[in-house]
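haha ok so turns out i had the wrong file open the whole time. this is the CORRECT one, sorry everyone. sequence first:
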Amino acid sequence: MFRLINSILMVCFVFLVGYFFGVKEVRFYEVISGSMEPTLKVNDRIMTIKKTGFPRKSIVMIRDPLASDEILAKRIIGLPGETIEIKNGKVYIDGRKLREPYIKEAPDYKLKKEIPEHHYFLLGDNRNRSEDSSVWGPVDEELIMSKAILKYWPFKEFKIIARPSIDI
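then structure:
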């Protein structure tokens, strides 16, 4: 109970800072697709902070690389300079299997890509129903707008978005 009250107070503080003091680092988004299920669902609301570094497994908001005006939620899987391979329903980074307990189902496609400098490989958690780097290829870091820090709506599912683990 104390943890919930502490989290609510922290969110209220961030909201107040963002609204009353004009901090431009805090952004609020509505999830518009099911590509991040089961982690985020359509109509969920999340709070993000502007670019602060992008560790693997972070959930980020990006401008659609196909030049539409949509803002999409995706998970960072591959970092600049790495090689990503998807085969047999698993993701491999430089030959090491990535542990992914958050995905809805294993990917049913194959691909292999090298990630250039200043680019990231992004995938939705709903791997087989997500338009992501498996379609577009690596995404330029300039398209990444912010990193998700908490889900605040629906309120009964309120949670701080876990800090990504570093393990592969």
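The longest strand covers residues 144-153.
again sry for the mixup
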